[in-house]
Design goal:
With about 230 residues, the chain is mainly α. It has helices spanning about 1-15, 20-35, 45-65, 85-95, 100-115, 130-145, 160-170, 190-215, 220-230, and strands at about 75, 80-85, 150-155, 180, 215-220.
Length: about 230
């Protein structure tokens, strides 16, 4: 099996199709099985060998698919013989441990371009497509430039998970902070309420300015934004 792995590895590095690599590995596995498991041998040994071979095939298939996967944010410059990559995408891939899908990169690029032009855009994605774990941190890296405030509004039930996803990418290597904005209703006397709210508004403004200057991201829930807007 190791011999077949060594033979198949150069093909994977040259981005040859995964099916060809799987065919070579499958042929090697069949050869090994025919040599090791002869007719009349212990059935339990044959069963264990077959199970081990299947696991090797699956692991090798995953390895080759990753080696031959395309990096969609990379661009080969033939004249300079260099590879140009998007550093924001590269940081997310490094932290998440997998390559960005083509759809994820295209959506993130489109959203970032629209936001830079001051235009609104809405995208719909299915569950488990990488909205919280991939796109949100990636857009936070792309858009935070000390000139505008990047704010993520997440459902209240998903806010802790979304905050952890942001923190895991932004704070792990780049040390960018993730701020949480909370605003609740207060039952106070009018004068005390005015004083308390004024102090809180000043604190919120200071936090927002700090987040913008430090290329950080602010995350909040819809109810907090609505409460703040109703009171002010």
């Amino acid at each position: 099996v190791l011999d077949w792995l060594r033979r198949a590895l150069p093909f994977a590095e040259m981005a040859v199709g995964e099916q060809a690599v799987r065919a070579k590995l499958g042929a090697g596995a069949d050869l090994l099985q025919s040599k090791r498991a002869k007719p009349g041998s212990d059935p339990s040994v044959r069963l264990k060998l077959a199970s081990s071979l299947r696991e090797i095939q699956q692991a090798a298939g995953t390895l080759f698919s990753r080696l031959s996967a395309k990096r969609y944010h990379g661009q080969w410059i033939a004249g300079e013989r260099t590879l140009s990559v998007d550093l924001c995408c590269l940081m997310v891939e490094f932290q998440c441990g997998f390559l960005l899908r083509e759809m994820q990169y295209r959506i993130a690029s489109n959203l970032a371009a629209r936001a830079s032009d001051g235009r609104s855009v809405v995208k719909q994605m299915i569950m488990a497509a990488g909205k919280s774990a991939v796109l949100t941190p990636l857009l936070g890296l792309m858009l935070a430039d000390t000139k505008k405030l990047v704010m993520v509004i997440s459902p209240d039930a998903l806010l802790p998970m979304s905050r952890d996803c942001l923190f895991g990418v932004l704070n792990s290597v780049l040390a960018r902070r993730v701020f949480t904005f909370r605003w609740g209703r207060q039952q106070l006397d009018p004068i005390e309420r005015i004083r308390a709210v004024s102090a809180q508004v000043a604190s919120v403004k200071s936090t927002m300015v700090q987040a913008m200057a430090g290329r950080g991201v602010v995350i909040t829930a819809p109810k907090d934004v609505k409460t703040f807007m109703l009171q002010h």
